[in-house]
Amino acid sequence: MYIERFAAQMADAGWQRMPARVFAALMATDSGTLTAAELAELLRVSPAAVSGAVRHLTQIHMALREREPGSRRDIFRVRDDVWQDAILGRDRALTMFEDSLGELAQVVGRESPAGRRLAESAEFFAFMQKEINGMLDRWREHRDALREEYAES
Known about the structure:
Blueprint: H1 2-12, H2 17-28, E1 33-35, H3 36-43, H4 47-59, E2 64-67, E3 74-77, H5 82-108, H6 113-152
Antiparallel strand pairs: 1-3, 2-3
Helix pairs in contact: 1-2, 2-4, 3-4, 5-6
């Protein structure tokens, strides 16, 4: 089953198993949305397992919790652009790392081995940030071309 295979790959990459399964299930639905009950049934798990998984996914911005229109039930949704949003979230972390490492390099002295290591680490994060922004721009151009192709076929 695709969901289990993709979830296993995500778990191998460091994801928690149940959030990986829920995320894979959301990705595999045409609507990108499922209720907790639908997720529990599809994955053959308890509602409590789904609850913990979606809580984790919403905290890391890989899924959204929304109210089903005209109902008291929550639905869980994955956005079409979830991956680029995840990368943008990492971009903010890169800025924090760059700033912290740069400050620490100043504190210990850039001329020391630790200071050079810290300064180089800060520069690495600055470099990554510039590259990610350019990469995301190129991705958006590529994605738009793909969407035009899909619309034509």
